[in-house]
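Review this:
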Amino acid sequence: MSGSISAASVEETLKDFWATRPRRPHDGRKIAGVAAGIAKRYQIDPVIVRVAFVAMALCNGAGVLIYLLGWLWLAQDDDEVSAAESLIGRGRSSTPTALTVLLGLAVIPATGFFVDGGFTMVGGVLLSVGAIYLLHRGRGQLNRPEPAVAFGVGDGVGVGVGVGEGVGGKVSTDEHTTGQVTPPAWDPLGAAPFAWDLPEPGGAPEPVGATPAPVVARRRRSRVGVATFGAALVVLAGSLVTSAYSDWFHAQHIIGLLVAVLGGGMVLGALRGGGGRGLMWLVVPLSVVGVLLTSVDFDVDAKQMGSTRARPTTFEDVRDQYTASVGEVELDLTGLPNDESRTVDTGVEVGLGSIKVMVPANADVTVDCRTDLGSVRCLDRESDGEGRHEQVTDYGADGPGGLKIVLDVRSDLGAVEVSRG
């Protein structure tokens, strides 16, 4: 971009971005080539762009929305227009119409989530748009698409020949400005234009035989990846220790810290010559887990992860609630005295995991079992799937009488089982 464009208004910059927007290449793409196209257009390492998309995806899915829009509105290298423009009849695109429709449908819920919720996603989208604007304003002059030049008949070049082409592949700088071909030195009168592609007299002879293989310098192995992985382990260990003293260190926040460290290492490696690319295999799954944990309804606490097993033998030992964010809870109530004058009222709740509760054989049990997604085995009732809910009152083999137990057992995602011992 020229100085006038780089100093122009926001509107002019955005118009220039749209006119020279990136194209999605076939080579180097991971999914649809959106990140690779942006990196190629502005001549930056594609790892930096992919890390940015991953970081924005953690902002309640803002990066996913931006990527889908890029897939729809950025054309491929060999297409006339983008997939969305082809759908409305403005040119040819190799993207199948069915895929374009599916992408458009996928944008609808993402846009609805953007409208309905969250400062985090709104900020992520605005930050993405601002980053694209600044990137184009600062590097928009690089790798700009050049329009093809067609010469007419009588210019000495065939019609439809572009810049840098001509008879014999030789066109001088004057040809670009005047449209005329300059004869070689050995034919100053232009008497033999059919032979102008011959080499100049006295030029260097063509090499005979096979040319020796070029010596490829071995790139020095970067240590950025190893150092970043070590730093991530230190952050993980420190976060787990600190979680015992601070409620801020939930699983979502710990994963966010790890992604930030790994992403920073990838950016540093890209700036230093491409080191740390292997960290992508850690960043992507961690980012997916982080998005899931911030999207589901249950709260995950690092202090409530793992297995919990309890077998109270007195009524005082029974807690009001047994909980776990991620893991397994096993509660055995068969050790309680069979006192028909007593009532035990307790609950078990797990965010992601399984629940197993065992009650005495002759106790009068009233139990409410539910799971948002999973299986329920609630005494004599069983069900599987989404939104399972079973309510059971059972007096045991001896009929009414004996210890009374009231249970509320639920899991957001997992299996719930209540059985008699």
Notes: The two ends are 77 Å apart (CA to CA).
